Amino acid sequence: MTDLALIDELMTLVEPGKVLTDAASLDAYGKDWTKHFAPAPSAIVFPKSIEQVQAIVRWANQHKVALVPSGGRTGLSAAAVAANGEVVVAFDYMNQILDFNEFDRSVVCQPGVITQQLQDFAEAKGLYYPVDFASAGSSQIGGNIGTNAGGIKVIRYGMTRNWVAGLKVVTGKGDVLELNKDLIKNATGYDLRQLFIGAEGTLGFVVEATMRLDRAPNNLTAMVLGTPDFDSIMPVLHAFRARLDLTAFEFFSDKALAKIMGRGDVPAPFATDCPFYVLLEFEASNEEVANDALATFEHCVEQGWVLDGVMSQSEQQLQNLWKLREFISETISHWTPYKNDISVTVSKVPAFLKDIDAIVADNYPDFEVVWYGHIGDGNLHLNILKPQNLSKDEFFAKCATVNKWVFETVEKYNGSISAEHGVGMTKRDYLTYSRSPVEIEYMKAVKAAFDPNGIMNPGKIFAVE
Prior knowledge:
With 465 residues, the chain is α+β, with helices and mostly antiparallel strands.
């Protein structure tokens, strides 16, 4: 724990009132969306400038105080949880868009800029920021960079990594580095910018980011299709990708849809009950594209891959169809789900899911299992819902016993134990299923170079030694 004298010294580094130690603030800022670990920070500090962040990091090095970054706290791997008396560095007041370059299609953001804030800014300029997910209204750009956030448009636009033109960071030593200087082409040795993307704050803090924008999409249109079984989904993906440039290809199970329908605020896509559903999106830039989509739908029906479907005819209908997918995570959170965020190459998805499904069925026969995810890029979300008769700790313990078999299957298919949620603390002990021991040693050496005193988000990605 950090003693009172150190907290008093910390208060001198930022503006008055920007260090909080009350119980409500410690609880709110010491956690993310995970429920595995109880928050126990010693203080929350709110810097408003790069210089203040630098002063905080140097103070932490001097006194060997651990720091945990906090953004929108929407993470799902406990990467932003302060469970051991750390000081939380919250970037809520570094939330400005600092510059816009219309020729380069780029925006300079502070780390506390909300994802939707950037999306809205881009839209006002006639452009588009394509990294999108259900938590866009509360997640922050710094956190997105720290976890290399993916979301629903990866099949077309890639991960956050693809949209970071440059970074300004404060390293674990307290140095300020300007990485890549927003260049498209830069062949001058190691690209340190890429090390910080996905590092979960373990190397240092992102204090400024230049984000690239794209042209605005033209008449986005969505289709929701019902399939008779999971094996039909991949032929549907292949059929549509052969004729359309898809911006999204998502799937969810009938159990996921039932939870959404139970909310009562989203209409059913159609009357036919199906075990699995696909949501795909494309730009219907002209009538020919829309006709191609309908012709592909009819082909899929003739092949028996699709039982029913609907295509959006308005912006409102487009939004309603997306709610069927985007509301799932929030809706099932009431059941305290145990989440696995796993991925393989797209071609391996059907066999991989069958293997995982068999493990789940054998070991969780009494648990409700909800499948959904970004199947167009090989990312599956396995959610096991907590029964009412089990405590949270009992439930998580039962789920953890099966993780070994789930992750052995991930390893068998050369997949990832964390496709887009990061490692944090929830996946830390399973890292060896996706990374070799030699790789992990190199990763630890990189951390030691940037953070020799081990103060930057310790215990995340790998355990403190």
